[in-house]
Amino acid sequence: MNRKNFILSAATIIGGSLTTVLANKIGININKLNERNNLMSKFELPALSYSYDALEPYIDKATMEIHHTKHHQAYVNNLNKAIDGTELEGKTLDEMFSMMSKLPAAVRNNGGGHWNHDLFWKLMQPGGAKQPEGKLADAINSAFGSFDEFKKKFSEAAIGRFGSGWAWLIVSDGKLVITSTPNQDNPLMDVAEVKGNPILGLDVWEHAYYLKYQNRRPEYIENWWNVVNWNVVSEYFSKI
Ligand code: MN3
Predict the structure, then answer these.
(1) Has residue 32 got a pLDDT over 90?
(2) What are the tens digits of pLDDT across the range 35-87?
């Protein structure tokens, strides 16, 4: 056990004992409480590493706050509800994605919603490279001709996604491929038309842009390129 884990464990034991003492005093069955806590902590809303206004003026503060605290939180809550008491408890999202065709729609929609947004927040970290560098730049140039050509094709996929969904840059059989999915599906799911590992994803649900851009999805997409952190994309690319 390393130092961090030791401190965490010690804090849990001390915290747990205090809770037990308090609970006994007011007559609550602590086992029932713990059971409930465990159930509710299966998946959690990840904290952002930046403030809600950090992506201004391209993505506005109100959109970021509602998107994270309402929409993403709802996916997390509904995912936990959907797997509560089922054999899916304890499984990772990757495991669920690989058998998605056999699982309920609530797991597909909310499991995808949770995973997709988690990636989305990380890709949009302020700072970092404004365009691909190194091996990723080489791979993009070789797959699409140039970075500009890639951006054009990716934007077309995002604009052309009818209704709600996502545009993706994925690694599929060792190649970079642009694709898009409806709703909260993603290319890791066995139901996806084009499968692969996403390294870049763009949310084109109206909730991602409507407050600032209303129906102008192309303008949102054009501005979104300004907040992509290519260091993060490169990191994902290097891990595949
Ligand atoms: Mn969204």
Answers:
(1) no
(2) 444 444 589 999 999 999 999 999 999 999 999 999 999 999 999 999 999 99
Q: Cα 51 to the chain's mean position, in Å? A: 17
- For residue 99 the two structure tokens come to 């058998």
Q: How many percent of the chain have pLDDT more than 70? A: 83
CA of 108 from ligand 1 middle (Å) equals 15
Give SS3 for 173: coil
Dist. CA 27 → ligand 1 center (Å)? 42
pLDDT value at residue 4: 46
Give the pTM: 0.83
Residue 234 contacts residue 134 (beta carbons within 8 Å): yes
Can you tell me the distance from the alpha carbon of 138 to that of 64, in angstroms, rounded to the nearest whole number? Answer: 32
- Rounded Cα gap, residues 33 and 35, in angstroms: 5
Among candidates 197, 177, 228, which has minimal Cα distance to 59? 228
Q: How far is the CA of 117 from the centre of ligand 1 (A)?
A: 6
Separation CA 33–CA 95 (nearest Å): 28
Q: What is the dihedral of CA 96, 166, 153, 188, to 10 degrees?
A: 0
Distances (CA, A) of 92 to 88, 97, 98, 140, 201: 8, 9, 10, 30, 20
Q: How far from the centroid of its chain's Cα atoms is residue 150's Cα? A: 22
CA–CA gap between residue 85 and residue 93 (Å, rounded) = 16
